[in-house]
Amino acid sequence: MTQPDKFSVYTDARIHYWTEFARCLNRWSGSRRYYQSRLAAFYALSIPPGMRVLEVGCGQGDLLAAVRPAYGVGVDFCPAAVEGARSRHPDLRFAEADAHTFELGETFDYILCSDLMNDVWDVQRVLAGIERHCHAETRVILNVYSRMWELPRRAAEFVGLAKPLLRQNWLAPDDIANLLHLGDFELIRRSSEILWPFEIPLLSRLANRYLVRLPPFRWFALANVFVARARPRQVETEPVVTVVVAARNEEGNVPQIFDRIPKMGAGTELIFVEGGSRDDTWGAIEREMKRRPEVNARLFRQPGTGKGDAVREGFRHASGELLMILDADLTVAPEDLPRFYEAWRSGKAEFVNGVRLVYPMEEQAMRFFNQVGNKFFSLAFTWLLGQSIKDTLCGTKVLSRGHYEMIAANRGYFGKLDPFGDFDLIFGAARFNLRIVDMPVRYGERVHGETNIRRWSHGLLLLRMVAMAMRKIKFV
Predict the structure, then answer these.
(1) What is the pLDDT of residues 192-236, one digit of tens each?
(2) What are the distances in angstroms from CA 189 to CA 86, 149, 227?
(3) How far is the C-alpha of 370 from the C-alpha of 413, rounded, in Å?
(4) pLDDT of residue 392
(5) Per mean pLDDT, which of 309-318, 370-379, 407-416 is the most reliable?
(6) Taking Cα atoms as reference points, which of 299, 278, 435, 445 lies closest to residue 363?
(7) What's the CA gap between 280 and 276, in Å, rounded?
(8) Using only C-alpha atoms, what is the Rg of the chain?
(9) Are strands 351-355 and 52-56 parallel, antiparallel or unpaired?
């Protein structure tokens, strides 16, 4: 039998299998309900509402509906499944098509593949079809059964708790990572989900929210989940860049900021947000703006308190497509901003995070205990968020307006605990799987004014941020 013939036989057998499954859905849905609800919770946490979402191998369409898309499309090769999906979710679009060959002629913000790759003939071919439906910022999220559960699955089938599966691709995590690489995808993060797939009060919560995140328990998880994006591409058009400077008691640094801000992209906009200074910071900015009319600079009063409030006010008035934050104390050199710009424009990074802990610092730049605390928190947040976050409180950060607006629209999930503004952005970027890249910078001494950081009280606040990340991102 030729390879095309084998593929046809393989496909026909699976269409028959899933048709029978759809006809007996009530018989098997009870044992699968808790498992599917846990997966749906993970996907809903990772995808903002109102996106363009495609699910490949959508079955009855319940997962697609759970992520609340503005425009949702599901494809499945089983006519009975597509018919059921259309009946259950009439507000979504469903098409009968094979995952190996489907062609919709459009792109999506998110593409989902749940428990699909274990069952297809050619994973690489399926990923090639998915890649055709990606734009530059598309996220592909997929989960596969862990090989650790092959024997338990067979035992469940033997005693009648699960419908016997046809022969499966039991793929190890490294197999999926390699196939994503071959398919021109960049893996952003992966995780282990669902240690216990049945609902038992207290035990299910303990196993699936906490133990599954920790070794050695995570090695026995049922589902391996992967988040990837299409291979990075350079942004074709030069954007206008907005640099936001939160300025409080920084009168002496204002002239240097104007002197040293570089020109970037299609133009650089400089926005100052003054935060109730005791010195004449407001007057110093006004004087420099009058003296340098060639600089595109604007000045606003901060409506609330804290750096985070000032940055949000600056972003609200920004006209640029690329948003940057620069601390007014100039401990991070403005001359480094073009490197942040190039990392973003190249496509290598979607959220560029400054890091002060790589190069040696100037002698008085950071106190010893501050350095120790920063290094501790960098390890903690890297583990909690699933991407490298080597310095959480470096004030220099860069992201696009579109990504900022997505984070801001979903800010309520984390509450209003963060006065710095750093965690508001970092947590949002991690939750929605932006590609975070650390950018090492040399950290200098403050020349004018005094630091606004209060070591011990802010250290306690950082511990509260760790607790929040544990509750809202890691152990959910």
Answers:
(1) 999 999 999 999 999 999 999 999 999 999 999 999 999 988 988
(2) 32, 22, 5
(3) 29
(4) 85
(5) 309-318
(6) 445
(7) 10
(8) 25
(9) unpaired
Determine if residue 50 is left, alpha or beta; phi over 0 gives left, psi from -120 to 50 gives alpha, anything else beta: left
CA angle 124, 433, 202 (to 5 degrees): 100
Half-sphere exposure of 173 toward its Cβ, with a 13 Å CA cutoff?
17
Q: How far is CA 247 from the centre of its chain?
A: 30
Angle 435-177-48 from CA coordinates, rounded to 5°: 40
pLDDT of residue 419: 72
Beta-carbon contacts of 445 under 8 Å, excluding residues fewer than 6 positions away, are 331, 362, 363, 364, 365
Structural domains present in the chain:
3-230 (3.40.50.150), 240-474 (3.90.550.10)
What would the DSSP string read from start to end of 126-171?
Answer: HHHHHHTTEEEEEEEEEEEE-GGGHHHHHHHHHTTSSPPPPS----
Rounded CA-CA distance 332/354 in Å is: 9
Query: Whose structure tokens read 């970092």?
Result: 426
Cis peptide bond upstream of 197, omega within 30 = no
CA dist list (Å): 461 to 60, 373, 396: 45, 12, 20
Q: Which of 397, 414, 418 is nearest to 351 (CA)?
A: 397
Side-chain-side CA neighbours of 282 within 13 Å: the count stands at: 8
Report the C-alpha gap between 9 and 230 in whole angstroms: 32
Rounded Cα distance between 33 and 374, Å, is 43
> At residue 139, what is the residue type?
R
Residue holding tokens 């691709």? 169
* CA 367/CA 224 separation, integer angstroms: 42
Within 13 Å, how many C-alpha atoms sit on residue 378's CB side?
A: 19
Check: CB of residue 224 under 8 Å from CB of residue 173.
yes
pLDDT tens sequence across 68-108 = 999 999 999 999 999 999 999 999 999 999 999 999 999 99
Strand order in the sheet with 223-230: 93-96, 71-76, 52-56, 108-114, 134-145, 223-230, 185-193
Distance CA 221, CA 39 (A): 12
CA 66 to chain centre: 18
